[in-house]
Amino acid sequence: xxxxxxxxxxxxxxxxxxxxxxxxxxxxxxxxxxxxxxxxxxxxxxxxxxxxxxxxxxxxxxxxxxxxxxxxxxxxxxxxxxxxxxxxxxxxxxxxxxxxxxxxxxxxxxxxxxxxxxxxxxxxxxxxxxxxxxxxxxxxxxxxxxxxxxxxxxxxxxxxxxxxxxxxxxxxxxxxxxxxxxxxxxxxxxxxxxxxxxxxxxxxxxxxxxxxxxxxxxxxxxxxxxxxxxxxxxxxxxxxxxxxxxxxxxxxxxxxxxxxxxxxxxxxxxxxxxxxxxxxxxxxxxxxxxxxxxxxxxxxxxxxxxxxxxxxxxxxxxxxxxxxxxxxxxxxxxxxxxxxxxxxxxxxxxxxxxxx
Length: 356
Known about the structure:
Blueprint: E1 3-7, E2 17-22, H1 31-40, H2 42-49, E3 59-63, E4 71-76, H3 87-104, E5 109-112, H4 124-139, E6 145-150, H5 160-173, H6 183-199, H7 210-225, H8 234-243, H9 248-259, H10 263-269, H11 274-282, H12 290-299, H13 304-313, H14 323-334, H15 339-348
Parallel strand pairs: 1-6, 2-4, 2-5, 5-6
Antiparallel strand pairs: 3-4
Helix pairs in contact: 3-4, 5-14, 6-7, 9-13, 10-12, 12-13
């Protein structure tokens, strides 16, 4: 764990294994395949000749030779024929078999291209959806650091339905950040407007000094705005009092227990490394990043109000003037807690990803 998406050159990735979107002969070609053969040097071609080719959906392994990666996993993606020749299932098999081969050879990290999304013609949104789905499923069961490498923005395309839904939600709720105005000043302006409306109809009473009047109205506003601390029952009061001094770490562990989850299930669903989770568990005062805190709210499938509470324990909040926050709010409000799909969307909108 975890799963990353990044723009990079696959041949420069310093990982245990990179995956080559190869042709059935395994003897090199264009695109990613050609780039990997050029970067790895002639020994890669000699090693591939001994493999006797590879069937669509299957995977074979060689050394990385002149590449920074120790291994190259060669897999053959399907050629797009309109979806009538089992292309999606074959593409999914490419990811599953490549990941299994990486695990078999003791790899801790592996980097993929977007298989079959180039010359083989699989629609980019489908190629991306299959990659994210299969890698995500694998990582829920295994410990591995996986990166999906996108060479440029044109090679990465989110589902048009999902992109449109998220964009519409952002357009509706996103508010450009504006300089914050003093709350007391706003209250005074509202009061002055009220005075103007009723002033002509009512006798003018003796006016308090302006400073005293502002103080009076600020106090009244605070009294009205303050949430009631009186609970519905004595038990809810106890719960609230106990939660006052609860740290992020303590609240997280309590929520994991309440959900009946194991630690491993939680940090995997949060796309968080086991070592980081161990730090959080062992330190009651650990302060996570905002992305990590949100990742755990997603893993726990918390409703929006509880997610805000967990974030607050880490010192963060969701804001309508932050696109990242609005996108997170969209997924939580929609009941979609698939962190890999959320990260797929965040990447498409040029936002930071959730997890480690």
